[in-house]
Amino acid sequence: MTYETILFEQEGGVARITLNRPDVLNALNFPMYREISDAFDRIAADPSVRAVLLTGTGRAFCSGADLSRSFTIPDGGTIGDGVAEAMHRLINPMVARIAALKKPVIGAINGATAGGGVGVALACDIVIAAKSAYFVQVFGPNLGIVPDIGCTWMVPRLVGRARALGLALTGERLTAEKAADWGLIWCAVEDAELMATAEAMAQKLATGPTTGFGLIKNAITASEHNGFEAQLALEAESQRRAFNTHDTPEGIAAFLQKRKPVFTGA
């Protein structure tokens, strides 16, 4: 697939996806939803890719949905029907692919992140933001709509109900540093250090136990709805799978031999 709205490159075990509509602050449109989905499908199917770095071009990470494009209204339906159909068919599957990837995804948030862009950022596993970046949910106070692209699931789980409601109902900007303090993201760094920090993290994770990382992601996600006993059972089954990989015995051997492990991702 030839990409028009994103940049895609792979170097070693790291795939880099860059949202590339800087003239509209990397606003999400239908081609971008499709291209992000395609890129993550490629990554999921390629065992040589062991980590992903997702960022944006220009002064924004993502300004949310491109509202200059109208939604198709189904026959006999309403514009709301068209929006919901597009979300079910195209938008939700895109963000689900990011969150469900069984490989680490690092978000390098280079600037303004608004609306659905917040959901795209938070679908990443480790979010590193430039100190000049900020997060803002413009859905309700500006547009009269509901936060989407995963925001109503991610934000309250990361920062709690009170802060999630405050952000959604007021539309106030949350600085990168406060987002880190609240636990919404992993960390905030100086602007000049963002890409180097994110690249170093991606490279580190790309040399790790990729299958084990996927099991960790699955277990943490499952803990949101599992009871304690169910989570203990999941941990046992996850360890069964981990110990049957190549990387866990290698990690144990390296630990006992006091050397650096050499993980293959298998």
TrEMBL record:
It comes from the Bacteria. Pfam families: ECH_1. One of its GO terms (molecular function) is catalytic activity. PROSITE patterns: ENOYL_COA_HYDRATASE. Belongs to the enoyl-CoA hydratase/isomerase family. This is Enoyl-CoA hydratase. It comes from Zavarzinia aquatilis.
